[in-house]
Amino acid sequence: MDPSRDYGFVAVAAGEGLKSVFTDLAADAVVSGGQTMNPSTEDILAAMQSVPAKTVFVLPNNKNIIMAAEQAEKLADRQVVVLPTRTIPQGITAMLNFDPSVNAETNTINMMAAADKVSTGLITYAARDSEYDGKRIKKGEIMALENGKIVSTSTDITKATYRLARGMCKKDSSFVTIISGCDVSDEDAEKVTEMVKAKCPNHVEVSHIRGGQPVYYYMISVGKQFLRLTCSLKNSNSPAVSKCPPQGEFFVVFRRSSPGCSPAGRPGRPPDADGPGCPDRRRRPAAALPPRGTLRRGWSPAPARRQQHRPDPSEN
With 80 as the cut, is the pLDDT of residue 117 above it? Predict the structure, then answer.
């Protein structure tokens, strides 16, 4: 254990893209797992023990994994805080709201309060014939879920995703993040992203992350406001904040990578913000980087862009 490290993080996620997102957000260890592939208590405990910090936050990111994480907590040789995040969007939001200047108890309250305000949409398939809320669902049908409840079924993945995202995006929403799975091509994911952009209000920032997760063709995260982290220069060495801006405020934005970095480098920042245009982050191979839109920390909310009208696929 490193006595100089107060906090560390363990997250559970499946898919190389999602693992890279959590690593970018300063997760010390990412345990492979998710729907239908729950990690064992021993796997989570080993990840906890590998983090050289006095206090370790654990984000299960699935309701079926919370119990295993809580069992591992009892066996750990250090303070462990299990944040009961039930979805990947909740886990990402919780980490973005970590504040190194407050204690673990306050962070637990604040991180979960932020996570609970994020809506999660999922696009998956029916594994068997079933019935939900009086409606019959056939094996192989595409199901759209909003915050755990089935809201519609379809035979077309693109249309189901578009309609779900459009329904989740409200007038007071500020961002929509579309996370594509391993069975979705980049072309299809970009098509869905552009369709959603065209129908959301102009002030809503819509972006795409190549998550690479199994089971779910798409995950959709919708929030009502840009999240902001505050920090002071004395805390700039925190594992969750690479550097504080001069004004002492740290914004989270969803925008395309900056041209300030090479394809094999790291996500871009304004050239004058942190040296040569790249943040002080871990390097990752180009193949692990989402090709276009992705979740990034930045200096100010991205400006709204007016979108051209595109036909509604539901009208076809």
Answer: yes
Which amino acid, one-letter code, is at 131?
A: E
Residues 254, 205 contacting (CB under 8 angstroms): yes
Q: Is residue 259 exposed (0-12), middle (13-18) or buried (19+ Cβ within 10 Å)?
A: exposed
The pLDDT tens digits for 23-72 are 999 999 999 988 778 999 999 999 999 999 999 999 999 999 999 999 99
Distance CA 261, CA 156 (A): 37
Average pLDDT over residues 3-31: 93
Backbone angles phi and psi of 263, in degrees to 5: -55, -30
Check if the beta carbon of residue 143 is closer than 8 Å to that of residue 125.
yes
Contact (Cβ atoms closer than 8 angstroms) between residue 168 and residue 272: no
Give CA angle at 233 (227, 237), nearest 5°: 85
What percent of the chain is predicted at pLDDT more than 70?
70
Please tell me the predicted confidence (pLDDT) of residue 225: 58
The rounded distance, in Å, linking the Cα atoms of 316 and 311 is 9
